[in-house]
Design a protein that fits this description.
Largest sheet: none
Number of helices: 5
Order of helices and strands: HHHHH
Helix content: over 70%
Number of strands: 0
Length: 87
Amino acid sequence: NYQAWNDRAHALYQLEEWSGAVECWSRAIDIMPGNHLFWYNQGCSLEQLAKWNEAIASYEKALEIKPDFQPGRSRYINLVADNSRPN
């Protein structure tokens, strides 16, 4: 059930269990790959883990699904434009 994985991921994110949240959103994405919020939330968790390239890829997928999704666009632009972080 994609909603159960999503709910679990949100709980883990709130507990700052970033890796667990990523795994749960990955499971939700496996079930429902067309949900832009799952990709976006996975990207947010990946950012917390400093997995920049993976986060960028998640945001790109969210924007591919929903191009006018402003929160995803903002986080994507900030990550791509941030020259202070290591590559």
